[in-house]
Specification:
The chain contains seven helices and six strands. By secondary structure, the protein is of the alpha+beta class. The protein has one domain. α6 packs antiparallel against α7.
């Protein structure tokens, strides 16, 4: 299977994260570009994912994360991390978590290394689980050619959606910025905070 033009693909991911519209509409634009570059029958299966399925959890996720101690008073950065949890049957799956760090840098993601991962708040994403299930369903499947672009786009869009859903607790007034991406890979800066108001500013890190 040929490789992506990753520069062009990344531009489409950034545009989808920054765009208006439902999560599903924005994800479909990424799938369209993936299919344009790497035609495969499985892209049609990916389009059938209910990309808005995590919305009920996203609406209260940050409040729950604050109450559970994953997002802490005085911290400046919010990190939404994509990772591959261990499974009982050694299959590949993915999830997203949120945690805060003492500093943040809008031009780098190095600050995420200072995050204490004890007590992070997991999304338990049904969307990411289904995405990986479809991507790795067969030996001829898309595998990482689907997981990488779609998980990265979805993680950033889900993070922006969560941040736009509700006022943040007053105790988090010190937050400066937020980023989303793979714990061991590419990441996006997604925005800044002004008096607890999230202002979306999407760019690569």
């Amino acid at each position: 299977m040929p490789s992506y033009d990753y520069e062009t693909l990344f531009e489409h991911i950034l545009a989808a994260v920054a765009a208006r519209g439902t999560i599903g509409q924005r994800m479909h634009t990424v799938i369209d570009e993936c299919e344009r570059q790497l035609p495969h029958a499985d892209w049609e299966h990916m389009r059938r994912i209910d990309f808005d399925g995590d919305l009920p959890v996203l609406k209260g996720w940050l409040t729950d994360a604050w109450l559970g101690g994953a997002v802490r008073q005085g911290d400046q950065g919010l990190w939404f991390g994509l990772f591959n949890p261990a499974t009982d049957d050694d299959s590949t799956t993915a999830d997203l978590y949120v945690a805060s760090g003492p500093v943040h840098d809008s031009g780098s993601d190095a600050w995420r290394c200072e995050i204490v991962h004890d007590g992070v708040s997991y999304l338990d994403s049904m969307v990411l689980a289904e995405l990986c299930s479809l991507a790795y369903a067969s030996k001829d499947g898309l595998e990482n050619d689907a997981e990488y672009p779609l998980a990265l786009a979805y993680g950033a869009i889900a993070a922006c959606t969560a941040l736009a859903q509700e006022p943040l607790p007053l105790a988090l007034a010190g937050l400066g910025g937020a980023a989303a991406g793979f714990d061991s890979g590419d990441a996006l800066f997604i925005g800044v905070f002004d008096n607890l108001r999230f202002i979306q500013q999407v760019r690569a890190l």
